[in-house]
Amino acid sequence: MTDPVLRLEGIVKTFPGVRALDGVSFSVMPGEVHALMGENGAGKSTLMKVLGGIHQPDEGKIYVGDTPAVMSGPLEAKAKGIVFIHQELSLATELSVAENIYLGELPRSSFGRVDWSELYARTDAILKKLNVGFNARTRVGTLSIANQQMVEIARALTVDAKAVIFDEPTASLTDAEKVVLFDVISDLQASGVGIIYISHRMEEIFKITDRISVLRDGQYQGTVNTADTDEEKVTQMMIGRKLDLSRNAAHHELGKVALEVRGLTCGGMYEDISFQIRRGEVVGFYGLVGAGRTEIAETLFGLRDPSAGQILLDGEEVRISSPTDAIAKGISLVPEDRKGQGLVLGMNCRDNMTLPQVDDLKAGPFVAEGAEVAIFDQYRDKLDIRTPGWKQQVGNLSGGNQQKIVIGKWLSMHPNVLIVDEPTRGIDVGSKSEIHKLLRALAAQGYAVMVISSEMPEVLHVSDRIVAMYSGKIMRTFTSEEVTEDSLIQAISGLGGERAA
Amino acid sequence: MQPGALSDALKKGAIWGFIVLELIFFSVAGEYLALSDKAFMDYENMLLLLKQSAPIGIIAIGMTIVMINGNIDLSVGATYAIAAIILLDSMTWTVFAGLGDWVIPVSWLLALAVGTFLGALNGLIVWKTGVDAFIVTLGSMLGYRGIVFMFNGENPTSHLNWTLVDFAEAQFLGFHTATWFLAIVTVIIWFVMTRTVHGRNAYAIGDNREAAVNAGIRVGPHVMINFAVIGFLAALSAVVFYSESGSVNPNDGQLYELWVITAVVLGGTKITGGAGSVIGTIGGVIAIQLLRKGLGHIGADTSTVNLVIGLILIAVLVLDRQLNVKGKEELKV
User: Fold this and answer.
1) Contact A99/B217, CB-based, under 8 Å?
2) How many H helices and E strands in chain A?
3) Residue B239: its pLDDT value, please?
4) Same domain assignment for residues A316 and A220
5) Which residues of A touch B198 (CB under 8 A)?
């Protein structure tokens, strides 16, 4: 039995109010591909940050080989042979491929000069292994996102790595590029490197990994041999039973179709999207990050121009050219990033709520304070927003109440279609169910509601119908009666489609 | 041709194309409007133009590397004035009285050392406090200018050393001393920025600071070195100019920072950092100098010149933005 290259023992990490990691232990053997799985928020990225020295663990130890290691930062992790391939690109786009791959470690010759021939030779050798269509001198900014991801991957090959951590490496790769990536991984394996592979995509996990470790709510659920398990079992380990996965049972009376989309396509982000939302209906969009859901919402709100397809509001085809246009046509978007895109944190509750219509609320040249307060009071009562008064700064409210302010802001514009993107991200459990009730109540009042969410319990709770998306395509549409957790997970992992086809 | 290649080529060559346009325009317009009957594209006139470009040009080279690095330095004009005073005044100090003409290199070194120190001080504050360079150098711009006035009140500081004047007015291979200094500085800094690890890291820091930090590049020292370099170059610019003129007013160098930034931006350096070149900056400097001289040649006054340069700067940035718009599926802002 060989010793593991990397071993974690009883890692505990707490953030105020949350136990993000609770006694996580697992080990990576040399030459092994070890999958790390779990739902969004299960603690995978926190664990990787602990490993990379960005967070220090409260308890527990990290061993590299058989020596305990304290990681003080990404550099030290790299020096110890732990290399991270991040999902988010960390590249300088104006520089060449070679300079990016050796960023911070450019080979030198005399007088602090860059040794260009050495740099290009080494880089081209790596790129040859990766079999990519660009060379060391290409400027990174001219490459596609997928090729930029390959540059990021190439960084793993510059050092003598002991363990390489791939975080969703295939999120933006095409099938042909995936094959190359898997070749790279098996090369690394053959040379005795341990690999941690984080992915949501079941088919990849079962294709290339040896063992699977599962995290759920910060707790280590166990490690299984990939050969001894199947998708059903892993899915069960991931979602567990204790989550409230009750489905929405009550349906409201449905009105006519408020929003219809036919064959909508936007560049490489999503294609051939068709769906309908009726008045009184909540339609949940479920899928992995990057499946194209937010981009659809942005298109409907006039932030992107579709390259093909039609958008119909109340049966009439429309062109939505800008958010102002969308608001005028009765579409409102509650954005994903509440603090960054939805609110002005330093402004008070009332001003935030009336922000989009402040132009219309005028008494002569001045803002009509009275009318503004009236609007705020109306929606505070309607949405049950708990704040000491309208003068309170929004930044001081709880997440749930902040979200209600954003929703109230858009309701006061009297929309027909309300799009909410990740409505309960970063909101505590109690407020979550309040927001869920609110969304149901809004549908009951005749709004057509589109909910984008990455949390399965949430989609199951609020939706009359669920649209499952996978890499820019609709895989399947479920009614709340027929949906099961397993079928939903499979659909968003790209498996449901293959089965149907 | 790859997408973006055309706009890249346009951007890189644009400033030189603009210079050619200026030359043609002023030569033709000069025929009808000029106050003198001398041609605009006269050999002597062009040599003079290069010489006059040198003071702004030398500082602009320094500004280019600071801006590529993602910072800005507003204090260069004040540093320039301080270095000029040190240069001229130190030649009269009694401690150096026995040196004869050997006082010249001593005064030069003194002025350059002070400039480098002032620049490095800016860099150190930006590094250690993390305050935005714009604010830090806005403060030092006022502070350094205050020192200038403390030195001699409103009075000019003068000292003429004829050996020095002879050196400054000399021509070698036709080019003036100042032009040579500009050329040498350009070559050295071009080499540093394109060929050395320091230069490439400076680009990386300006382009994606987080990526640079993740890759283990120590941002602070690079920032400080670049500020020290611009301080040195501001002082060098003063040394070159005041060796000849021999008299410095406490207001000298005011608004230099704005002329310098204008030239750098016209030359294609991104104001947010990460992209740009010293060669482009030289283009920007020459384009501005041509415009000033050319408009003067056809009889426009200073205010008209400023108006025109301002309009051109805005037009260039608008054009640059248009060329950089990506596919229509991009998220609109």
Assistant:
1) no
2) 17, 22
3) 93
4) no
5) 112
